[in-house]
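Posting this for the archive.
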Amino acid sequence: MKTMKLLFTLLIVAIAVNGFGQNITGSAHDFRDGSGGVETWNGSGEICLPCHAPHNNVDPTTTAGLLWNHTLAANGSYTPYASLTMDATAPATVTGSSVLCLSCHDGTVGLEQFGNNPGGVAADMTTIFPEGDFGTDLSNDHPISFAYSDGGTGLAAEGASTAVGGTIATDLLYGGAGGDVECSSCHDVHDAQDNLALLKIDNAASALCLTCHLK
């Protein structure tokens, strides 16, 4: 009986260890003063607060009801992806959930500039985590805010696969089928899948790329 209890205990521990990290706790988006994730800036000791606030959030009219708490980029002017070999029509500017991502990742807003921390330092992504600073020129980054279908002028015209691992390309669109390709098409900011770089699909053997790109 003692042996069975020991085996059961070890099984529970193994499950717990295997499951650790499959959420925002301990991920790159764990903002607790550097105590949990890889960042070192001051998140006021909380994981969620730099991005979301249950009350008095920053801009409830433009952030899709996400209780957004981080200061949005004031510039809002981005150079979209461009390529001589691409037929898809580029957007006028970044839209959708990518606006929220870029409030940190375009390097123009201090990471500690969120609604409940008005006295935070203004250090931005360029100094705190330069690998995550994409700037406002996105012409050499993966297309975001591009329509997927849009009557043959969207990214679908570039060629898309039908299914990889049970996932079809349109499952990853912001807004569902007929929506746009955004940062959140590839990345899960809450790290539910526990993949490198917060990816929604493990990109081993380019599996994530091949979900959308037929090559």
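Residues 30 and 205 are 28 Å apart (CA to CA). The first strand starts at residue 146 and ends at 147.
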